[in-house]
Write a structure and sequence with these properties.
The chain is built from 12 helices and 17 strands. With 372 residues, it is α+β, with helices and mostly antiparallel strands. Helix 1 crosses helix 10, helix 2 runs parallel beside helix 3 and helix 6 packs across helix 7.
Length: 372
């Protein structure tokens, strides 16, 4: 029986396992937490990531290793790769763990991104602002998600305060962009080089946390083709295996790349019910060398994250087209406890269903009014 090892046992690992069990797969998770969300769905190896003996034991019992988050220490990934194939490969992970290295990759493959400069000292922060101007975003080069590890600044004094608040760590200083909306696209590449790409999703954030995704995004053929070209170029340049997410800003001149995520992604949760093959199943197919599945949408879908508190189950489940996913995580403020997918045959039918769900659970603050 094929066994998959996953670094991390959070909700993404949980959903990978749920997608893999119908394929006859078994799972082993490496995670230092005592009771992570995915632990009940496989064998849980509890150890710190710097325990390379534990990593070796973990990898020794599986056929392939992958990861649910990109900040796995490279030493741990390398120790696993000494035993079994790891996908995406360790050099890919190394290239995408550092935001400045990521920007250099984008430059090499010819993809547009906001002007930015690196800084590792107070004087370098000031010099970077000379290059990119104000307002700007200060982002830690490593780690940070859901808005963590970054600050928007509108003065030099604020920039220096932000740098100290971020631990005086190496950062990038990036020009703040005026954009029409945030989008993302997920591509999957198999071991044989085959590529499948999902349609663009439109994403709405609040305080850095994704609150809602709509898919397919209302986007013309040119925009879809541009995004597909971006993700395909990255997949090929990296000799990538697995799911890759490209987060984008739509601006007057087209699309700018914001961030890359070498894994399954929150903005792709809609694919579980809303696409012919979910991002989770396709990632597993890719890393195992299996044929990739169809990525076409089945209709119109929306994903709404459940933040901080669980919903009233009977009320939410009473809405047609709703699918509820809870992650088995203790509630706390600003924590993702689950998500709701709302599905319909088309956008016209989707809008009232989504509105009903958001009335029940509280939609994204300041959210846009949707129209069919």
């Amino acid at each position: 029986m094929t066994s998959v090892g996953i670094f991390g046992a959070g909700q993404l690992g949980r959903m990978l396992a749920l997608a893999g069990y119908p394929l006859g797969l078994r799972f082993r998770f490496f995670d230092p937490q005592a009771s992570p969300p995915a632990a009940a769905l496989g064998t849980h190896v509890r150890a710190d990531y710097d325990d390379l003996d534990a990593v070796a034991r973990f990898a020794g019992g599986v056929d392939v290793v992958t990861f649910e988050f990109e900040d796995v220490p490279l030493a741990a990934v390398g120790a696993a790769a000494d035993r079994v194939p790891v996908h995406p490969a360790p050099p890919v992970l190394a290239a995408l763990q550092d935001r400045w290295d990521e920007r250099q990759l984008l430059r090499r493959v010819g993809l547009p991104f906001a002007p930015c400069a690196p800084a590792a000292a107070a004087a370098e922060v000031s010099a970077a602002l000379d290059q990119v101007g104000l307002p700007a975003v200060i982002k830690r080069r490593r780690s940070g998600y859901d808005g963590r590890g970054q600050r928007v600044v509108r003065s030099r004094a604020a920039a220096l305060r932000a740098w100290h608040e971020l631990g005086a760590a190496p950062v990038i200083v990036e020009a703040l962009q005026r954009f029409r909306r945030e989008l993302s696209i997920i591509g999957v590449r198999g071991r044989d080089g085959a590529v499948r790409i999902y349609p663009l999703a439109e994403n709405h954030h609040h305080r850095g946390i994704l609150r809602r995704s709509l898919a397919p995004a209302a986007a013309g053929a040119v925009l879809q083709a541009t995004a597909r070209r971006y993700v395909r170029r990255l997949l090929q340049a990296l000799d990538y295996v697995g799911a890759l997410t490209v987060e984008l800003f739509e601006v007057d001149g087209g699309l700018l790349v914001n961030e890359l995520a070498p894994r399954v992604h929150n903005s792709g949760h809609w694919t579980i019910e809303g696409a012919e093959t979910s991002q989770f199943e396709n990632h597993l197919r890719a890393v195992l060398g299996l044929p990739l599945g169809d990525t076409r949408p089945r209709g119109a879908a929306a994903m709404v994250n459940l933040i901080g508190a669980p919903p009233a189950l009977p009320a939410v489940l009473g809405v047609d087209g709703v699918h509820l996913h809870l992650y088995d995580k203790p509630a706390r403020p600003q924590r993702k406890l689950g998500h709701v997918t709302v599905y319909a045959a088309d956008r016209r039918r989707l809008v009232p269903r989504l509105a009903a769900v958001e009335r029940l659970i509280g939609g994204p603050p300041g959210r846009r009014t949707l129209h069919p």
